[in-house]
Amino acid sequence: MLKEILSISGKPGLFKLVSQGKNMLIVEGLADGKRIPAYARDKAVSLGDIAMFTETEEIPLGEVLEKVKAKENGAKASVDPKSDNDTLRKYMEEVLPNYDKDRVYPSDIKKLISWYNILIENNLTDFVEEEAEGAEEKHEKETELKDKPKKEVKPTVKSEPKVQVKQPKVAHKPTANRKMGG
Predict the structure, then answer these.
(1) Based on the structure, what is the number of domains in the chain?
(2) H or E stretch including 131?
(3) Greatest CA span in the chain, whole angstroms?
(4) Phi, then psi, of 72 in degrees rounded to 5
(5) 73-106 pLDDT, tens per residue?
């Protein structure tokens, strides 16, 4: 779901990808529903491609948004994105305790909270792809199938009678030399 939601530099809010043109994207604002073109110079970034730094690794934005949703019980964020830096940092520590305090700036936390609120207002609450969860379940089933003993199956081969059809020989007349365009 987050792959279709875009942040466009220089434009406030979030946008949903509607269509692709030859040299542009057609996007729809989540706040106002207006459709506008987004050109290559606009630097559109999918929320599915964004991650947050922690002390040990980078966590995809979808997982961070899920943690905010769990903290807020699916409601809008309890902290205002325009709060002072100390309040924002305390909130972020509650959501993601091991976030990298040197590389995650207060402006990043403001964006996270405002994006979360926009997504909640628009009822877009599936932040983590279900395909990823389905892939894990599929992997577990595959390992179970590998562990089960296989029954030996003998291949059955049906032989079809071979029929040869003789093609009649056709004599071709030589064609005259042709010149193109003449």
Answers:
(1) 2
(2) helix 130-147
(3) 94
(4) -95, 5
(5) 888 999 999 999 999 999 999 999 999 999 999 9
| Structural contact between residues 48 and 6, judged by C-beta atoms closer than 8 angstroms | no
Q: Of all helices (H) and strands (E), which one includes residue 24?
A: strand 24-29
What residue has token string 């020989």?
Answer: 169
- Collect all residues with Cβ–Cβ distance below 8 Å to 6 and sequence separation of at least 6: 14, 15, 16, 17, 25, 27, 38, 44, 45, 46, 47
Domain with 3, as residue range(s), is 1-49
Beta bridge partner(s), residue 36 = 27
- Does 86 lie in the same domain as 45? no
CB 79 within 8 Å of CB 62: no
- Quick one: which of 81, 82, 89 has its CA closest to 115? 81
pTM given for the model: 0.68
